[in-house]
Here is the input.
Amino acid sequence: MRFASSGYYVEKYEKCSVCGKLVYEERITQVNLEGKEALYCSEWCIEWEKKRAELKKKKATVS
Amino acid sequence: MDVVSMNIINSSMVSICREMGITLMKTSYSTIFNEALDFTCGLANVKGELIAVAEYCPAQIGGMPVLIENCIKELPIEDMKPGDVILHNDPYRGGLHVPEHTVFKPIFIDGEVIGFAVAIGHLAEIGGMTPGGFAGEATSIFQEGLRLPPVKIIQEGKDNEEVWKIMLANVRTPRYNYGDLRALISAADLGEERLTELIQKYGKEFFLKTVDDLMDYSEQRMRAEIAEIPNGHYEFEDYVENDGIEDKIFTIKANVHVLDDEVIIDYDGTSPQARGPINATYGVAVSAAYNAMLHITDPEIPRNSGCFRPIKVVAPPGTVVNVDYPAPEVGGNTETHPRIAFTIIGAFSKAVPERVAACEGGTHLNFVFGGYHEDYDEDYVCYDLEGVGWGARPYADGNNMCDSINGNCRTTPVEVFETRYPWLIEAFRLVPDSGGAGQYRGGLGAEKILRSRSDLITVSQMTDRHKIAPFGLFGGKEGGLGATLIQKEGEKEWKDVSEAYGKVSTSKFSNISIQYGDRVKIVTPGGGGYGDPKLRDPEKLKEDILEGFVSEEAAETLYGAKESISK
Ligand SMILES: [Zn+2]
Here is the structure.
């Protein structure tokens, strides 16, 4: 990364909290499902986190 | 879409990539390049997307777009000049593992970058705590070798001597590293030259439009293939037996969601990252997903980033499939990649059994060593990889002794190996009964016995499958286990490295001392079987016994043969 969000040169590798890819200038920070501030690369990842939680819940109910 | 021109341009680009690879093979110094072919050559567009690639190492094919996309974020295109060549190996900046060095050269047409010629190769020596890399007991990236962010090794056609000095001062074999880096650069130079000629022939606008069409075409073909897979959520798990530091099992979990013509591969449920070097980087997690998808879909689809558009990969950070800095990671690209890819294939076995194979050996064996060679008065280092048995398919047996799913590399011939390094190969043979029994049998693993001709060889290894065997499918049995055994000069007993050297893991270790006359036996795992062994064609079983692939005993106990078949 050219500049980390701390302002220092490199050595901070920030990843999307869902898909895990490196995040650069384009980023979304918002509260995740556990109520903690989290970093996302895209709206898709915000939505997938919710959908995945629903799928898990559904599976737990079935079994 | 001009389909005829698209086909010609695609084939021409693939030929360019193949020629880049031949140049690399012919000009390199180390056996890992000129014999094993552990490299890949490709072409990328200005966004870093893959537009063409040759049939070399699949791990690097899938990882290439992630790599280039990250590099051009850090070293922007505006800062590139004609004649520049960029070098990179940082696993934490889109790389695959420390030894994997990416060399890429911007291609300028009319003063504008239109893409890149890319050569990725595994350098046999990279500094760090063990000769040959693959420190099986590393607990930090800093023990694994010199890490390079994207830097210009050539600036406007001239060597950047500062970078060369740093590179060569940090390795045990500077002469070989110099030669191998030059080979990678030559491949990129050739790619730039040939692609420039091709673009000049067709014109820039037409070429770029046709390449866009080509990627759209690959995307459409991949979507059509996925659309044939029933919608659903398919899960599968497999395991890495330990990390070299702790004797505990690590789970790789694939959750495959097929929705119409798209696939989401989510590794949720995978173990937290390990203390030892089995961790995969994000690039590996993506590459393994693409690799698995390319194995279960039409091999005729032109290979470019268009194929990857319908595939979404979710690799939770801080897990074995997406390691966080500064944990070690060198085995992630060789051992964990095949485990991830076959976990995905295992998930797809529940949806499309006719498209999948049982598990292959799933390790590159990664037997690395170094020392001083008296005959040549020079320090040497070798990264040796070995083949494994491949998994049986729904229509055929698995292949014997081929490199694992992400390698596609070759075993170095015995004659070359003995000439270059102070070992005598006393045996190299297939292991009977190592192919998992099945209606279709798994491929066989091999056994190699090496005897030291040197007073001291420092050996390390990063392998797996000493404890957890490759899985079979639909009643097919597991493939045979691997092993690494040592017989000290003058002793009769073979011991594993835990017994002989007190190591935690028999499959992942750093820097054991092998002395003159000591022997090392490497056994490589076999592939899993497919379908019930009792359904195997008796003629095939007879042939197996005559070839020595299956013993009479196994024919009776595993395949249910009523009497001695060979008589
Ligand atoms: Zn994301």
Summary: Chain B has twelve helices and 20 strands. Residues 174-202 of chain B form the longest helix (29 residues).
